[in-house]
Design goal:
Layout: E1 3-9, E2 18-23, E3 26-31, E4 48-54, H1 70-84, H2 103-126, H3 129-136, H4 145-159, H5 170-173, H6 180-188, E5 191-193, E6 206-208
Antiparallel strand pairs: 1-4, 2-3, 3-4, 5-6
């Protein structure tokens, strides 16, 4: 039996009225509000109530809202720079799955990108001193081990602040735990995921821009 869970999501001015979607076991009732939130650097409180039915058990638990502030973007850059050699910019244009790909495929590609960045944050903030030293070696991006020690210590403090949303501990949770299958399902139904916005992202938001929501059974 599905368990009913009430949570809040943010709605943009692109939405109008209310929409009800039932997709592969997911049921969502989204009520529009004239507000838009971006992440990072801005943050705001979720305002529009949404009722969601999901299968019971851990797989049915909803992700909590996240609105990390601007400092969180720097933690993400540092984490990805150290672990991959390239600093990720959370505000960059969304990932593409190719010209002929579906909206759901594009959403899945962007989810993969953000999920990888979230996992990088968890790994980076969890590195022990010896693991950090092994990663840095003779230096990374022009910075020596002393710089990275200092940077990680500051980022650890930042990762424990409320700017990371409901989790508050980026070291344990990263910045995103929104289920991929939910993102794909809602995107396939015609909603645009806030994680695909061109600059600031609104990871817990979906909006309707086409005027219709396709029904899935």
């Amino acid at each position: 039996m599905a368990s009913r869970i009430r949570r809040s999501v943010r709605a943009s001015t692109a939405l109008s009225g209310s929409s009800r979607i039932r997709i592969r076991g997911f049921e969502t009732n989204a009520i529009a509000r004239a507000t838009r939130c971006f992440w990072p650097p801005e943050s705001c409180t979720p305002r529009s109530p949404t009722t969601v039915s999901k299968p019971s058990g851990s797989a049915g638990r909803p992700a909590r809202p996240h609105n990390p502030g601007g400092a969180a973007a720097n933690v993400i850059k540092n984490a990805t720079l150290l672990l991959t050699g390239t600093a990720a910019n959370i505000r960059q244009s969304p990932a593409s799955a190719g010209k002929k790909a579906s909206a759901a495929d594009h959403a899945a590609a962007q989810w993969d990108r953000l999920h990888a960045q979230s996992e990088a944050v968890k790994t980076y903030l969890s590195l022990s001193e010896s693991e950090l030293a092994a990663r840095v070696g003779d230096g990374v991006a022009g910075h020596d081990l002393a710089w990275w020690r200092d940077r990680q210590a500051k980022d650890l403090k930042e990762g424990g602040r409320g700017a990371w949303g409901g989790h508050h501990h980026a070291q344990t949770h990263g910045f995103m735990d929104l289920a991929k299958n939910l993102v794909v399902a809602l995107s396939a139904a015609g909603l645009l995921w806030g994680g695909q916005y061109r600059t600031g992202k609104d990871i817990m938001h979906f909006d309707l821009r086409t005027g219709t929501v396709r029904h899935r059974t």
